[in-house]
Amino acid sequence: MNVEPTVRVQPAWTVAVVLANVGVFAAWFGPIQVLLAKQSQAVAPGNKEFVFGLVTGIGAAVSVVAAPIFGAVSDRTTSRFGRRKPWTLGGALGAAVGLLILSGAEGVALMLVGWCVVQLFGNAVLAAQTATVPDRVPVEQRGVVGGWVAVAQVPGALVGTALATVAGGIKLGYVACAVFVVLSVVPYVVRAHDTRLAVAPPPFVLREFLRGFWISPRRYPDFGWAWLTRFLFNVGNSIGLLYLFYYLQDEVGVPDAATSVLILTAIYSVCTLVTAIAFGSWSDRIGRRKIFVIWSGLVMAVAAGILAFWPTWPGAITGAIVLGIGFGAYLSVDFALITEVLPNARDRAKDLGVINIANSFPQVLAPLIAAPIVKHLGGYPVLYLLSAVITALAGVLVSKIRSVR
């Protein structure tokens, strides 16, 4: 049974939560967008795609496991500081350690260790912070607040890419991301009110703990459809964006791929933020979610098609604008939709951790799908067409969710 909050949250609380999310996404996207790509090229110039895919894929596999586990542990935490704060702070510190390991990595093995540590502890932050929204925010406010929280990955990607680009090299880029992720959680840890567990959790039984991660799609079909559609959205997005650095360098032929990624990320970020807040508020006012998510999938598919058929710098800019418009609407409204199909209020972080597998697992699959296509099966046009088809399918399947309008 879901027990929903009724007291509206204040802007300062929302800012603290958003900033913590921006920090963890900066710690992820700075490396993914620029630093790991450069490092892979330096370590294995003749096999950069394989090394980059290997490191990001194994890191994503760690994320698949870490997200629901940290969510479940967060749900059971009885600290006097609350359920979410200890994991927010501890996760930020752990992610910073992983980034510092990467800053000194000169071989594939240490890159793997560092990136897996970043993914592991970054998911502790994300699991805790994602759960704060259904913990504290009333349903009628979730479109706006959820929109801000969901799109935190956009300024996170922009900040991370900027730090990675302007810091002055691979080593300093990682250090800058490490400092930022720690500083980003300070306002939430110091000032934001956190929910405490009202009653002690049941005794820990490993079998029951593990069984709790299975949420039957037959018993909870709307949760199942929400998971599947988010998975497909992220597969389409991941295979399209994974090799953006190399797409710009090798297909478009820009002279400075890192700076070009930063420019596109900035354009995309502005478009995403504008549409996310606008559509999140609109969704709250009319009480509907699905129609926004369906159309966002179709718009994102158009963006992938532009990148497939127009591999030029103007085409890349146009694709970034269209993708930002579609992705902003998707992020804000889909997050609100998901919080309304969670099976049990007591297990929100764990259930959202299961949802986050739909974010992480596509990053495992993306290198397996994208690398053979780029190398042997038609290159970037085929890759982006596949991305368009998968994203459009995800949007259409959102209509299967019945309990949310």
TrEMBL record:
Cellular component, GO annotation: plasma membrane
Localisation: Cell membrane
InterPro entries reported in the protein's UniProt record: MFS (IPR011701), MFS_dom (IPR020846), MFS_trans_sf (IPR036259)
Transmembrane segments: 12-30, 50-74, 86-105, 172-190, 227-248, 260-279, 291-310, 316-342, 354-374, 380-399
Keywords: Membrane, Transmembrane, Transmembrane helix
Topology of the protein relative to the lipid bilayer: Multi-pass membrane protein
GO molecular function terms attached to this record: transmembrane transporter activity
Keyword Repeat part of the UniProt annotation: no
Signal peptide from the UniProt entry: none
Major facilitator superfamily (MFS) profile domain mapped to chain residues: 222-405
Entries under PANTHER family matching the protein: MAJOR FACILITATOR SUPERFAMILY (MFS) PROFILE DOMAIN-CONTAINING PROTEIN, PTHR23528
Protein name: MFS transporter
Organism: Kribbella antibiotica
